[in-house]
Amino acid sequence: MRTALLSTLAFTLAAATAPAQIGLQLTTGVDGGIVIPADPLLVPPTGITVEAWITFNDSTIPLNGLFYWPTIVRQNIQNGQEVYNLRVSSGNTGARSLQWTVRVNGQLQSVSYVFAAGEFVPWTHVAATYDGQNLRIYKNGAQVAARTLTTTAELVYSGDVLRIGNGDPVAPGRETWNGMIDELRIWPVARTAGEILSTKNQSLGALPGKLLNFTLDGFEIDISSGLIGATFGTTAYAAGAPLAQLVSTSVSSFGQSTTTCGRSIDALVASVPSIGNADFAIWAARGPRPAQSGVGLLFGAVAQAQPGLPPALGVNVAFDLNSVVYQVAILGPTTLLGNARWPLPLPNDPAFPGATLYFQWAFLDSVCGPQGITASDGLQVTLQ
């Protein structure tokens, strides 16, 4: 209910105050940005994508011998304790290096993209992903940097806040962004290049699955999961990314994950179910790790389960068992950290818009399954 109310409020505010696309404007050397209160949603353990439209003026970074780290986003702003950050590592020389950093097994691991002078002065879409072993940076949907680690590890939430447009507060202003930030999204999965490209020009509505979606249209509300931030210091809103178009996502979750463990499984999508979207897929986040589950099942149906039905084999079934039109067994169902993705490319067929399907994941799971099976919540997807 809270998320629905906040989503309505966000779009009401956007319509009332932002007839044109709006974005956050900041200046390096002048302290300011947005702070999001501490919440476990800020650190998805089994993979992450951070993306935003940005402009960045590298020619006006101060060259006065001091160190500057203009930051797009940073989680945990305590000195040396970041869980992840995406920033330009200007240092004390005005270096042009877009750096993506995550904390893995207590150590910071990074990958960087060295950009040309003025390359980010025009509006540019950037994204950074971590899938448990690989760090990647994308520019306008194309991979420009990658690094594979020798170990596999989750991101671990250590508390503290997230900052948009700023980082470590020890030296106020030196980690403030130098330009614009718009359409900041933090996904709980490492999205594919195709998924990133498919939505980069879209301003998305609310999506289920613990996505954080800050449209930055003159307010600091995450319209998907319901987190509310606040500005600090000197901030401004100005004309934002011109290519971002508001898109109704037509996806919602219902029901409950079935598990005896604390880690519930979320069914979600990482792109919009539009006809012609060849990169559409159904995801499961926080599923069982491969060591405890060798088989996963994805079901698609045309009818939702009737309310009040008792569990089947300990599972809260989200769909009508008599309406199943799609099912697939996936051997080795999840990544090493417990995510699963099943591609479901949507043909460009004018007969499809308006069709609604219901999806649910189930996994053989002797550790957390009430009767040897765990399942995600249900996902309602209406094609558009």
Query: How many separate domains?
Result: 2
Query: From the coordinates shown, what is the CATH architecture of the largest domain?
Result: Sandwich
Task: Please state the structural category.
Answer: mainly beta
Number of strands: 26
Mean pLDDT: 92
Return residue spans where pLDDT drops below 50 for at least 5 consecutive residues. Answer: 1-19
Order of helices and strands: HEEEEEEEEEEEEHEEEEEEEEEEEEEE
How would a textbook summarize the main sheet?
8 strands, antiparallel
Under the CATH scheme, which class of the largest domain? Answer: Mainly Beta
Rounded to the nearest angstrom, the distance between the terminal CA atoms is 25 Å
Q: What is the CATH third-level topology name of the largest domain?
A: Jelly Rolls
Kindly list the characteristics that best describe this protein.
Immunoglobulin-like, 384 residues, 26 strands, eight-stranded antiparallel β-sheet, seven-stranded antiparallel β-sheet, 6% helix, Jelly Rolls, 2 helices, globular, mainly beta
Concise account of the structure shown:
With 384 residues, the chain is mainly beta. The chain has two helices and 26 strands.
Q: Could you explain how this protein is built, in words?
A:
By secondary structure, the protein is mainly beta. It folds into 2 domains: 2-247, Jelly Rolls, CATH 2.60.120.200; 251-382, Immunoglobulin-like (Sandwich). Helices cover 6% and strands 37% of the residues. It contains 2 helices and 26 strands. Strands 1, 3, 8, 9, 10, 12, 14 and 16 form an 8-stranded antiparallel beta sheet that branches. Strands 7-6-5-4-11-2-15 form a 7-stranded antiparallel beta sheet, with no helix packed on it. A hairpin with a 3-residue loop joins strand 8 and strand 9. The longest helix has 16 residues, at 2-17. The radius of gyration is 21 Å and the shape is globular. The two termini are 25 Å apart.
